[in-house]
Amino acid sequence: MYGLTSSPAHPSSEAETAPALLARFDALFGSVTDADELVRAAARVAGCTAGMSDHGRVLRRCPAGGVPEAAGEVIPSTRRLITVAGRATGEVWIERPGEPLPFDTLLTERLALAAAALAAAALAAGGGGVTAGEPGGGGPFARTRRPGAGAGRGTASAPGAAGAPRTAAAPGTAPARGTALGAVPGPSQGFGGVAQAPDHRVWGPVGLGDPALVQAVLSASMPETQRSRALHLLGLPPAGPMRAVAVVVAEPRSLQGALRASAAELSPTTRSGGTAPHGVLWPRVGAIVLPGPGTRTGAATLRPGPGVAVGLGPAVAPERLPESWAQARRAARFAGLGPTWPRLVDAAELGAQVLLADIPEDAALTHPDVTAVARLEAEPDGPQMLATLEAVCRTRSLREAAKLLSLHHSSVAHRVARAERALAMSLSDPSERQRAHTAVLLWRLNAPDNWRN
Q1: Distance in angstroms (rounded) separating the CA atoms of residues 236 and 221
Q2: Which of 187, 209, 372, 426 is most buried, most CB within 10 Å of its CB?
Q3: How many whole angstroms separate alpha carbon 372 and alpha carbon 378?
Q4: Which of the four pLDDT bands, split at 50, 70 and 90, describes residue 17?
């Protein structure tokens, strides 16, 4: 392990930095067995003090392996929460003087994933966490039992503390072609010849792609050499059209199932014979990379359940996948937004409506039309009123809206009259009906309870 961590943390070539760091950390994660060893390794790779907290106890190590001499307040430069089974159990960080380096976020993400795996193993063995207890008695430096077959791992989610980054890579599982988070590719795959970790089962159930690789092909800041390398490891050709798909869920526990189902339906056959590469990027957001120019057959049969929103980005060349991902995320914000919106939305079919997603939240929520819609929804039967208002705006008649809502047309007419008084608009006027519909969309896109955001 010393050999893995003794090389410089940040290679001189930017194109080699991320793969080298991923390989070094994934190999470390497969070999460490306790929190102290993990924090020491992180400090050596980072070249500065690293730390971990769990249940109020703090463990800090400097690059030389000892306890930092400087006492006083800990000031992390980059940090991540340790989350196991949807519950935050602690935090990891690095303490770099001055400005964070470009890959500090990636470093802390991987550190949080490893700490979550140790915490899950400790809990499974009856312990209290990664650093629970005291030295010599199952304490902060006690070794934890590695999970056996089928053991899962926790997720690294964004900390809620002020000043902390909002996003963190969540756990993935084994991607296409046998590459798993924690199972590092060999020399032929271009990651510096680091051997595969001894036991990749610690990283979770088989079936999901490595989120770091999926994130690499979708990141606008990723150099092309790294994107091509990540595509290769995911089993995708470096050329040809591809589409990004965003899967957003209301409950984190349903994300892995929604990702698997969506990937299987949207791309039932790939070059490797499996489902399209996919991975969890945030606790409620996952991504799929679809090979080929179109997915219309799969899209026609995919019916995401309640609490799941799927957005399809356009087919693009591999180097433009970040653009497809951005449009897929925008499309997912409209999916299932109301009774007339499907739970799978293609960005290409939104047209100019997609621009509404780019309006700043503060500007949208303070507009008088939008505040009027918000007041209408705050009434006792507000959700039903808004559903009726949207249905009337997007259908050709009251009877068609009533059929969509499974209501009698006289009930719809009564609600329309109430909505017209509340909004000071006439829904029989086409221009004012369009105005009302725009206000409803802006409210729903930016409402505090819209989990699609």
Answers
A1: 20
A2: 209
A3: 10
A4: low
Q: How far is CA 53 from CA 31, 36, 132, 213, 341, in A?
A: 21, 11, 10, 28, 44
**CA-CA-CA-CA dihedral for 85, 135, 147, 259, to nearest 10:** 30
Assess contact for 344 and 410: CB atoms under 8 A: no
Output b/e per residue, 4-27; b: 16+ Cβ within 10 A. Answer: bbeeebbbeeeebbbbbbbbbbbb
Evaluate whether 60 touches 46 at the Cβ level (below 8 Å). no
pLDDT digits (tens, 9 = 90+) for 408-436: 888 888 888 999 999 999 998 999 999 99
Rounded to a whole number, what is the largest CA-CA distance in the chain? 77
- What percentage of the chain reaches a pLDDT higher than 90? 28
Using CA atoms, how far apart are residues 97 and 265, in angstroms rounded to an integer? 48
Residues in the chain: 453
- 103: which 2 tokens? 């890959």
Q: How confident is the model at residue 305 (pLDDT cuts 50, 70, 90)?
A: confident
Distance CA 446, CA 437 (A): 14
Please calculate the CA angle 361-363-369 and round it to the nearest 5 degrees: 105
Per-residue pLDDT tens over the stretch 335-353: 999 888 999 999 999 999 9
Q: Which residues pair with 290 in a beta bridge?
A: 243
Matching residue, tokens 């919106």:
341
HEC letters along the chain? CHHHHCCCCCCCCHHHHHHHHHHHHHHHHCCCCEHHHHHHHHHHHHCCEEEEEECCEEEEECCCCCCCCCCCCCCCCEEEEEEECCEEEEEEEEECCCCCCCCHHHHHHHHHHHHHHHHHHHHHCCCCCCCCCCCCCCCCCCECCCCCCCCCCCECCCCCCCCCCCCCCCCCCCCHHHCECCECCCHHHCCCCCCCCCCHHHHCCCCCCCHHHHHHHHCCCCCHHHHHHHHHHCCCCCCCCEEEEEEEECCHHHHHHHHHHHHHHHCCCCCCCCCCCEEEEECCEEEEEEECCCCHHHHHHCCCCCCEEEEECCCECHHHHHHHHHHHHHHHHHCCCCCCCCCEEEHHHHHHHHHHHHCCHHHHHCCHHHHHHHHHHCCCCHHHHHHHHHHHHHCCCHHHHHHHHCCCHHHHHHHHHHHHHHHCCCCCCHHHHHHHHHHHHHHHHHCCCCCCC
